[in-house]
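sorry for the late reply, my laptop died twice this morning and i had to redo everyting from scratch. anyway the thing you sent over, i finally got around to it. pasting the sequence first so we're on the same page, its 381 residues, then the predicted structure underneath. double check i copied it right bc i was rushing
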Amino acid sequence: MITRFLLSNMDKRGYAFLVLVLVAAIGLLVPLANLLMPAGSPFHVSTATMSLWGKYLCYALLAISLDLVWGYCGILSLGHGAFFALGGYAMGMYLMRQIGSRGVYGNPVLPDFMVFLNWGELPWYWYGFSSFPFAMLMVLLVPGLLAFIFGWFAFRSRVTGVYLSIITQALTYALLLAFFRNDMGFGGNNGLTDFKDILGFNVQAQGTRAALFAMTCTMLIAGFLIARGIVTSKLGKVVIAIRDAESRTRFLGYRVDRFKLFVFTVSACMAGVAGALYVPQVGIINPSEFAPANSIETVIWVAVGGRGSLVGAALGAVVVNWAKTMFTSGFMAPYWLFALGALFVFVTLFMPKGILGTVQGWWEKRRKPEALPAAEPAPAE
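ok and here's the structure:
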Protein backbone atom coordinates (compact mmCIF):
# COMPACT_ATOMS: atom_id res chain seq x y z
CA MET A 1 0.00 0.00 0.00
CA ILE A 2 2.82 2.40 0.91
CA THR A 3 4.67 1.48 -2.29
CA ARG A 4 1.55 2.11 -4.35
CA PHE A 5 1.11 5.52 -2.69
CA LEU A 6 4.72 6.51 -3.38
CA LEU A 7 4.58 5.39 -7.00
CA SER A 8 1.31 7.22 -7.53
CA ASN A 9 3.16 10.45 -6.66
CA MET A 10 6.00 10.02 -9.12
CA ASP A 11 5.14 13.18 -11.04
CA LYS A 12 7.77 15.90 -10.94
CA ARG A 13 6.27 17.89 -8.08
CA GLY A 14 4.94 14.94 -6.12
CA TYR A 15 8.11 12.91 -5.68
CA ALA A 16 10.19 16.01 -4.99
CA PHE A 17 7.82 17.02 -2.19
CA LEU A 18 7.86 13.49 -0.80
CA VAL A 19 11.65 13.42 -0.80
CA LEU A 20 11.84 16.75 1.04
CA VAL A 21 9.41 15.48 3.66
CA LEU A 22 11.41 12.26 3.98
CA VAL A 23 14.73 14.06 4.44
CA ALA A 24 13.17 16.45 6.98
CA ALA A 25 11.72 13.52 8.89
CA ILE A 26 15.09 11.75 8.88
CA GLY A 27 16.81 14.92 10.08
CA LEU A 28 14.40 15.11 13.01
CA LEU A 29 13.79 11.48 13.95
CA VAL A 30 17.30 10.05 13.66
CA PRO A 31 18.89 12.51 16.15
CA LEU A 32 15.95 11.96 18.52
CA ALA A 33 16.37 8.20 18.24
CA ASN A 34 20.05 8.63 19.02
CA LEU A 35 19.59 10.95 22.00
CA LEU A 36 16.37 9.75 23.61
CA MET A 37 16.18 6.01 22.96
CA PRO A 38 18.22 3.71 25.27
CA ALA A 39 21.02 1.73 23.69
CA GLY A 40 19.11 -1.55 24.04
CA SER A 41 16.00 -0.26 22.26
CA PRO A 42 15.31 -1.48 18.70
CA PHE A 43 14.57 2.16 17.81
CA HIS A 44 17.97 3.40 19.00
CA VAL A 45 20.34 4.74 16.31
CA SER A 46 23.99 4.57 17.32
CA THR A 47 26.22 7.60 17.02
CA ALA A 48 28.50 5.74 14.59
CA THR A 49 25.56 4.88 12.31
CA MET A 50 24.26 8.43 12.45
CA SER A 51 27.67 9.85 11.53
CA LEU A 52 28.02 7.36 8.69
CA TRP A 53 24.68 8.34 7.19
CA GLY A 54 25.54 11.97 7.76
CA LYS A 55 28.54 11.39 5.50
CA TYR A 56 26.26 9.84 2.89
CA LEU A 57 24.02 12.92 2.98
CA CYS A 58 27.05 15.17 2.48
CA TYR A 59 27.83 13.15 -0.61
CA ALA A 60 24.21 13.54 -1.71
CA LEU A 61 24.58 17.34 -1.58
CA LEU A 62 27.80 17.06 -3.59
CA ALA A 63 25.98 14.92 -6.17
CA ILE A 64 23.20 17.50 -6.48
CA SER A 65 25.80 20.21 -7.10
CA LEU A 66 27.36 18.15 -9.89
CA ASP A 67 23.99 17.27 -11.40
CA LEU A 68 23.21 20.97 -11.59
CA VAL A 69 26.09 21.54 -14.01
CA TRP A 70 26.22 18.16 -15.75
CA GLY A 71 22.62 17.04 -15.84
CA TYR A 72 21.09 20.42 -16.66
CA CYS A 73 23.87 22.46 -18.26
CA GLY A 74 25.86 19.72 -19.98
CA ILE A 75 29.16 20.57 -18.26
CA LEU A 76 30.88 17.32 -17.28
CA SER A 77 33.11 18.51 -14.46
CA LEU A 78 35.76 16.09 -13.23
CA GLY A 79 36.96 18.57 -10.64
CA HIS A 80 34.06 18.94 -8.23
CA GLY A 81 36.03 17.01 -5.65
CA ALA A 82 38.34 20.04 -5.49
CA PHE A 83 35.48 22.37 -4.48
CA PHE A 84 34.31 19.80 -1.92
CA ALA A 85 37.83 19.58 -0.45
CA LEU A 86 38.32 23.36 -0.35
CA GLY A 87 35.13 23.76 1.67
CA GLY A 88 36.34 20.98 3.93
CA TYR A 89 39.72 22.65 4.45
CA ALA A 90 38.03 25.95 5.33
CA MET A 91 36.01 24.17 8.03
CA GLY A 92 39.11 22.24 9.12
CA MET A 93 41.09 25.45 9.57
CA TYR A 94 38.37 26.82 11.83
CA LEU A 95 38.33 23.61 13.87
CA MET A 96 42.13 23.66 14.20
CA ARG A 97 42.05 27.22 15.53
CA GLN A 98 39.60 26.11 18.22
CA ILE A 99 42.13 23.65 19.66
CA GLY A 100 44.28 26.41 21.13
CA SER A 101 46.63 25.30 23.91
CA ARG A 102 45.01 21.84 24.14
CA GLY A 103 47.23 20.52 21.35
CA VAL A 104 50.15 18.16 21.87
CA TYR A 105 52.66 21.01 21.98
CA GLY A 106 50.43 23.39 23.94
CA ASN A 107 50.90 26.33 21.56
CA PRO A 108 47.86 28.64 21.87
CA VAL A 109 48.26 30.03 18.32
CA LEU A 110 50.01 27.54 16.05
CA PRO A 111 48.48 24.14 15.20
CA ASP A 112 50.59 21.14 16.20
CA PHE A 113 51.84 20.42 12.68
CA MET A 114 53.19 23.97 12.38
CA VAL A 115 55.03 23.64 15.69
CA PHE A 116 56.47 20.32 14.55
CA LEU A 117 57.65 21.88 11.26
CA ASN A 118 59.20 24.86 13.13
CA TRP A 119 56.88 27.53 11.76
CA GLY A 120 57.62 30.79 13.52
CA GLU A 121 54.23 32.43 13.10
CA LEU A 122 50.77 31.80 11.79
CA PRO A 123 50.51 32.30 7.99
CA TRP A 124 48.43 35.30 6.92
CA TYR A 125 45.82 33.11 5.19
CA TRP A 126 44.99 31.49 8.54
CA TYR A 127 43.97 34.85 10.02
CA GLY A 128 40.27 35.13 10.73
CA PHE A 129 39.61 31.39 10.93
CA SER A 130 39.16 31.61 14.68
CA SER A 131 35.80 33.22 13.81
CA PHE A 132 33.00 30.87 12.75
CA PRO A 133 31.21 33.43 10.52
CA PHE A 134 34.47 34.18 8.70
CA ALA A 135 35.15 30.48 8.21
CA MET A 136 31.65 29.93 6.81
CA LEU A 137 32.17 32.84 4.45
CA MET A 138 35.37 31.18 3.23
CA VAL A 139 33.50 27.89 2.77
CA LEU A 140 31.44 29.66 0.11
CA LEU A 141 33.93 32.22 -1.15
CA VAL A 142 37.01 30.06 -1.80
CA PRO A 143 35.35 27.36 -3.97
CA GLY A 144 33.07 29.95 -5.55
CA LEU A 145 35.92 32.30 -6.43
CA LEU A 146 38.02 29.49 -7.87
CA ALA A 147 35.08 28.29 -9.98
CA PHE A 148 34.36 31.85 -11.13
CA ILE A 149 37.95 32.51 -12.23
CA PHE A 150 38.28 29.10 -13.88
CA GLY A 151 34.90 29.38 -15.59
CA TRP A 152 35.54 32.94 -16.73
CA PHE A 153 38.51 31.87 -18.85
CA ALA A 154 37.17 28.46 -19.88
CA PHE A 155 33.67 29.48 -20.94
CA ARG A 156 34.72 32.71 -22.63
CA SER A 157 37.20 30.63 -24.64
CA ARG A 158 34.34 28.27 -25.55
CA VAL A 159 36.11 25.22 -24.16
CA THR A 160 33.54 22.43 -24.10
CA GLY A 161 33.12 18.67 -24.06
CA VAL A 162 35.95 16.35 -23.19
CA TYR A 163 38.49 19.20 -23.30
CA LEU A 164 36.72 21.00 -20.45
CA SER A 165 36.48 17.75 -18.48
CA ILE A 166 40.23 17.18 -18.84
CA ILE A 167 41.00 20.74 -17.71
CA THR A 168 38.82 20.38 -14.60
CA GLN A 169 40.58 17.12 -13.80
CA ALA A 170 43.95 18.82 -14.22
CA LEU A 171 42.81 21.57 -11.84
CA THR A 172 41.98 19.17 -9.03
CA TYR A 173 45.21 17.21 -9.61
CA ALA A 174 47.25 20.42 -9.37
CA LEU A 175 45.57 21.23 -6.07
CA LEU A 176 46.27 17.69 -4.86
CA LEU A 177 50.00 18.16 -5.49
CA ALA A 178 50.00 21.61 -3.90
CA PHE A 179 48.25 20.55 -0.70
CA PHE A 180 50.63 17.62 -0.27
CA ARG A 181 53.48 20.11 0.27
CA ASN A 182 54.32 20.81 3.91
CA ASP A 183 55.34 24.39 3.10
CA MET A 184 51.77 25.19 1.96
CA GLY A 185 50.69 25.36 5.60
CA PHE A 186 47.78 22.91 5.42
CA GLY A 187 49.26 19.92 7.20
CA GLY A 188 50.85 18.25 4.19
CA ASN A 189 50.11 14.58 3.71
CA ASN A 190 48.48 14.23 7.14
CA GLY A 191 46.07 17.11 6.61
CA LEU A 192 44.05 18.57 9.47
CA THR A 193 42.70 16.40 12.29
CA ASP A 194 42.41 15.99 16.07
CA PHE A 195 39.52 18.45 16.23
CA LYS A 196 38.18 19.40 19.67
CA ASP A 197 35.31 21.89 19.52
CA ILE A 198 32.84 23.47 17.16
CA LEU A 199 31.06 26.61 18.38
CA GLY A 200 32.21 25.73 21.90
CA PHE A 201 30.73 22.21 21.86
CA ASN A 202 32.78 19.04 21.93
CA VAL A 203 32.83 17.78 18.36
CA GLN A 204 32.86 14.15 19.58
CA ALA A 205 29.89 14.58 21.93
CA GLN A 206 26.71 12.70 21.13
CA GLY A 207 24.60 15.87 21.11
CA THR A 208 27.03 17.62 18.75
CA ARG A 209 26.96 14.68 16.36
CA ALA A 210 23.17 14.74 16.38
CA ALA A 211 23.15 18.48 15.67
CA LEU A 212 25.60 18.01 12.78
CA PHE A 213 23.38 15.32 11.28
CA ALA A 214 20.32 17.55 11.54
CA MET A 215 22.24 20.45 9.97
CA THR A 216 23.37 18.20 7.12
CA CYS A 217 19.74 17.28 6.39
CA THR A 218 18.80 20.96 6.51
CA MET A 219 21.55 21.94 4.08
CA LEU A 220 20.62 19.07 1.79
CA ILE A 221 17.05 20.37 1.64
CA ALA A 222 18.29 23.93 1.09
CA GLY A 223 20.67 22.82 -1.65
CA PHE A 224 17.93 20.86 -3.38
CA LEU A 225 15.54 23.83 -3.24
CA ILE A 226 18.19 26.21 -4.61
CA ALA A 227 19.07 23.85 -7.47
CA ARG A 228 15.41 23.15 -8.22
CA GLY A 229 14.63 26.86 -8.12
CA ILE A 230 17.33 27.45 -10.72
CA VAL A 231 16.37 24.64 -13.11
CA THR A 232 12.63 25.40 -13.03
CA SER A 233 13.07 29.14 -13.57
CA LYS A 234 13.38 31.00 -16.86
CA LEU A 235 17.13 30.95 -16.33
CA GLY A 236 16.92 27.18 -16.00
CA LYS A 237 15.12 26.89 -19.32
CA VAL A 238 18.00 28.71 -20.99
CA VAL A 239 20.52 26.48 -19.18
CA ILE A 240 18.73 23.35 -20.45
CA ALA A 241 18.70 24.85 -23.95
CA ILE A 242 22.47 25.34 -23.67
CA ARG A 243 22.82 21.67 -22.77
CA ASP A 244 20.71 20.51 -25.70
CA ALA A 245 21.82 22.97 -28.38
CA GLU A 246 24.51 25.40 -27.28
CA SER A 247 25.20 26.87 -30.72
CA ARG A 248 21.53 27.55 -31.42
CA THR A 249 21.10 29.17 -28.02
CA ARG A 250 24.07 31.43 -28.73
CA PHE A 251 22.68 32.36 -32.14
CA LEU A 252 19.42 33.40 -30.46
CA GLY A 253 21.37 36.11 -28.67
CA TYR A 254 21.95 34.58 -25.22
CA ARG A 255 25.33 35.05 -23.56
CA VAL A 256 25.99 31.37 -23.07
CA ASP A 257 29.23 31.90 -21.16
CA ARG A 258 27.47 33.97 -18.49
CA PHE A 259 24.78 31.36 -17.88
CA LYS A 260 27.41 28.65 -17.63
CA LEU A 261 29.53 30.74 -15.31
CA PHE A 262 26.62 31.42 -12.97
CA VAL A 263 25.56 27.77 -12.69
CA PHE A 264 29.16 26.56 -12.33
CA THR A 265 29.87 29.03 -9.52
CA VAL A 266 26.67 28.21 -7.61
CA SER A 267 27.45 24.52 -7.98
CA ALA A 268 30.95 25.00 -6.58
CA CYS A 269 29.58 26.84 -3.54
CA MET A 270 27.17 23.98 -2.87
CA ALA A 271 30.03 21.49 -3.11
CA GLY A 272 32.01 23.60 -0.63
CA VAL A 273 29.14 23.49 1.87
CA ALA A 274 28.99 19.71 1.49
CA GLY A 275 32.71 19.51 2.27
CA ALA A 276 32.34 21.75 5.32
CA LEU A 277 29.62 19.51 6.75
CA TYR A 278 31.66 16.40 5.95
CA VAL A 279 34.80 17.31 7.90
CA PRO A 280 33.48 17.56 11.51
CA GLN A 281 31.53 14.32 11.07
CA VAL A 282 34.48 12.37 9.66
CA GLY A 283 37.12 14.06 11.83
CA ILE A 284 39.82 14.66 9.23
CA ILE A 285 40.54 16.42 5.94
CA ASN A 286 43.66 15.66 3.91
CA PRO A 287 44.88 16.06 0.31
CA SER A 288 43.44 12.69 -0.72
CA GLU A 289 40.06 14.43 -1.01
CA PHE A 290 41.49 16.24 -4.07
CA ALA A 291 42.20 12.94 -5.83
CA PRO A 292 40.73 12.93 -9.37
CA ALA A 293 39.25 9.49 -8.63
CA ASN A 294 36.91 11.09 -6.10
CA SER A 295 35.53 13.47 -8.71
CA ILE A 296 35.08 10.61 -11.17
CA GLU A 297 33.28 8.60 -8.51
CA THR A 298 30.90 11.53 -8.01
CA VAL A 299 30.06 11.35 -11.72
CA ILE A 300 29.20 7.68 -11.24
CA TRP A 301 26.83 8.53 -8.37
CA VAL A 302 24.94 10.95 -10.58
CA ALA A 303 24.83 8.53 -13.51
CA VAL A 304 23.59 5.66 -11.34
CA GLY A 305 20.89 7.72 -9.66
CA GLY A 306 19.78 9.54 -12.77
CA ARG A 307 21.43 12.44 -14.53
CA GLY A 308 19.15 15.44 -14.95
CA SER A 309 17.04 14.66 -11.89
CA LEU A 310 18.22 16.19 -8.64
CA VAL A 311 16.53 13.54 -6.53
CA GLY A 312 18.15 10.82 -8.62
CA ALA A 313 21.62 12.30 -8.12
CA ALA A 314 21.18 12.32 -4.34
CA LEU A 315 19.75 8.80 -4.43
CA GLY A 316 22.70 7.55 -6.46
CA ALA A 317 25.19 9.05 -3.98
CA VAL A 318 23.51 7.34 -1.03
CA VAL A 319 23.05 3.97 -2.76
CA VAL A 320 26.59 3.73 -4.16
CA ASN A 321 28.26 4.80 -0.90
CA TRP A 322 26.10 2.44 1.15
CA ALA A 323 27.14 -0.36 -1.21
CA LYS A 324 30.76 0.74 -0.86
CA THR A 325 30.52 0.46 2.92
CA MET A 326 28.95 -2.98 2.68
CA PHE A 327 31.30 -4.46 0.10
CA THR A 328 34.60 -2.99 1.27
CA SER A 329 34.36 -4.64 4.69
CA GLY A 330 34.37 -8.27 3.50
CA PHE A 331 35.88 -10.55 0.89
CA MET A 332 34.72 -8.12 -1.84
CA ALA A 333 37.03 -5.36 -0.60
CA PRO A 334 39.82 -5.91 -3.19
CA TYR A 335 37.27 -5.96 -6.00
CA TRP A 336 35.15 -2.94 -5.11
CA LEU A 337 36.63 -0.64 -7.77
CA PHE A 338 36.01 -3.29 -10.42
CA ALA A 339 32.44 -3.64 -9.22
CA LEU A 340 32.00 0.13 -9.31
CA GLY A 341 33.28 0.31 -12.88
CA ALA A 342 31.04 -2.57 -13.90
CA LEU A 343 28.08 -0.80 -12.31
CA PHE A 344 28.80 2.34 -14.32
CA VAL A 345 29.03 0.36 -17.57
CA PHE A 346 25.82 -1.51 -16.75
CA VAL A 347 23.92 1.69 -16.01
CA THR A 348 25.25 3.36 -19.16
CA LEU A 349 24.18 0.47 -21.40
CA PHE A 350 20.97 -0.78 -19.81
CA MET A 351 19.73 2.06 -17.56
CA PRO A 352 20.81 5.28 -19.33
CA LYS A 353 18.32 7.29 -17.29
CA GLY A 354 19.61 5.91 -13.99
CA ILE A 355 17.63 4.32 -11.19
CA LEU A 356 15.08 7.09 -10.81
CA GLY A 357 14.58 7.62 -14.54
CA THR A 358 14.09 3.89 -15.11
CA VAL A 359 11.52 3.62 -12.32
CA GLN A 360 9.70 6.70 -13.61
CA GLY A 361 9.61 5.32 -17.14
CA TRP A 362 8.28 1.99 -15.90
CA TRP A 363 5.59 3.69 -13.85
CA GLU A 364 4.48 5.98 -16.69
CA LYS A 365 4.10 3.00 -19.01
CA ARG A 366 2.06 1.23 -16.36
CA ARG A 367 -0.25 4.20 -15.88
CA LYS A 368 -0.96 4.67 -19.59
CA PRO A 369 -4.20 2.95 -20.57
CA GLU A 370 -3.83 0.36 -23.24
CA ALA A 371 -4.89 1.66 -26.61
CA LEU A 372 -8.21 0.23 -27.76
CA PRO A 373 -8.09 -1.55 -31.11
CA ALA A 374 -9.44 0.56 -33.94
CA ALA A 375 -12.94 -0.42 -35.05
CA GLU A 376 -13.08 -2.05 -38.43
CA PRO A 377 -15.02 -0.01 -41.03
CA ALA A 378 -18.45 -1.36 -41.82
CA PRO A 379 -18.71 -2.89 -45.30
CA ALA A 380 -20.43 -0.73 -47.83
CA GLU A 381 -23.97 -1.81 -48.70
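Residues 1-11 have pLDDT under 50 and may be disordered.
thats about all i looked at so far, will dig more tmrw
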